[in-house]
Amino acid sequence: MLLMSLVATVTFTAGLTPPGGFWAADDKSNGYVAGMSVMRSKSYRRYLNFYYSNTTAFFTSLMIIGMLARNINNLQPTYLKSNIFKGVVVTRFMSLGCSYISGT
């Protein structure tokens, strides 16, 4: 649960401050607006890849935290061994990797 909380924190922070930061001032000649993501302006496809993979990693981390919290007293040990749980964990790792790659 600690690892999932850490991942949720990192992906939330990355969503608030995307790679490259934000434009500080308007630049009408280039069409930049203050507060717009620099990555979105420079490479829109990479930005979309980062945005969707980061969002997926964040929400799957929240789902895993919820699943683990539901099973806090080991009342349903087989629940965490299911293919659904494994699929969510794999999806989270893949999304986090894609987010990292597109952000660097």
Task: Explain this structure.
Residues 1-15 form the signal peptide. The chain crosses the membrane at residues 48-69. This is PGG domain-containing protein. The chain is an all-alpha fold and 104 residues long. The protein has one domain. The protein is 65% helix and 0% strand. It contains 4 helices and no strands. It has helices at 2-16, 38-42, 44-70, 83-103. Helix 1 runs antiparallel to helix 3. The protein is elongated. The two termini are 27 Å apart. The model has no long low-confidence stretch (mean pLDDT 85).
Domain module count: 1
Round the mean pLDDT to the nearest integer and report it.
85
Structural class: mainly alpha
Q: What is the helix/strand order? A: HHHH
Helix fraction, binned, reads: 55-70%
Biggest beta-sheet profile = none
- End-to-end Cα distance, whole Å, is 27 Å
Q: Count every beta strand, where a strand is a DSSP E run of 2 or more residues.
A: 0
Per DSSP, the total helix count is 4
Strand content: under 5%
The poorly predicted ranges are none
Query: Tell me, what's the shape?
Result: elongated
Q: What is the alpha-carbon Rg in Å?
A: 17 Å
